[in-house]
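Database export, one record per block. Field names are fixed; values are copied verbatim from the stored entry.
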Amino acid sequence: MSPEPRRGFFRNWPLKLAALLLSGLLYLAVAAQRQVTQEVVMRLDVRVPPGRMLLSPPGTDTVVLRGKIAELLRLRSIHRVIELAVPETLSTALWITTLPTSSVKIPEGSNVEVAEFRPREVVIQLDSVGSKEVPVAARVTVTADSGQALDGGLQITPNVVRLVGPDRLLATIEAVATEPTTLNAVRGQFSRLVPLDTSALGVIRIARKQVLISGNTTPVFERAFNLMPIESGAGPLTGYELRPAHVTVLVRGSDAALQGLSKDSIRVIVHLGGPVNDSATVRLTVLAPKGVTARAAPDSVLIVRRRSGRG
């Protein structure tokens, strides 16, 4: 090559080198912004409910990540674990599930997303358990607002719940109760979500954690029944005299509960703790239908032992 062309090639070489470097950097910058995919093999981490165990060890799955090259390079230290939690109420031994993208923990602020799983569906083999439906018992105390009374009983929705666990433990459980709950100053129709008491279930799982307790209160009405006779809880009183022998019974309840109420629906009982040598004051108990509260006036009487005519 003649000296002239060689001098032309090396003429302004610093500018030519700078242009070459700039074009290379520009190419890298554009390439770094391009969306690409990357396959990462991750381990399955399966968490089972208490009391259950996996019959086969979890395997691995291929996760396809999509993002910019620069973002994917920053994820080289990503936690390569797919987290799965077996539902607590699963009663079968075989659990087939589709992997959700949320099972892969992508660092916050990263523009990388999970494109797909290979395979997307996984099969988990667990030990066998049983299931059982039991009724719900409401440990709920309702205090009605002033001038109101509970109309009927409480409704529980749902009134049965499903339990899952070892058969031998399920056989010992006949019902599940709510947490002790008090509803104060209730008026009219009401409903409350009340948690279930699961403290005694141990490893047994329950399908729900709370139930709906509902009911209704109505205005309270009062009636009085005069000259109600007093009876003995163990039969007729013999050898004794009551002073007074009759009392007034005051009843309170809803209009519907009091409409069908009569003297025959109420009993006034005197309970003797033991023999009475001369006389004693004893309290009275009033027995009334459900939904009606009743009290005697007076609420106690004097009992006097009758003297025989001899002596």
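Remark 1: The longest strand covers residues 35-47.
Remark 2: Helices lie at 3-9, 13-32, 69-74, 167-170, 255-259.
End of record.
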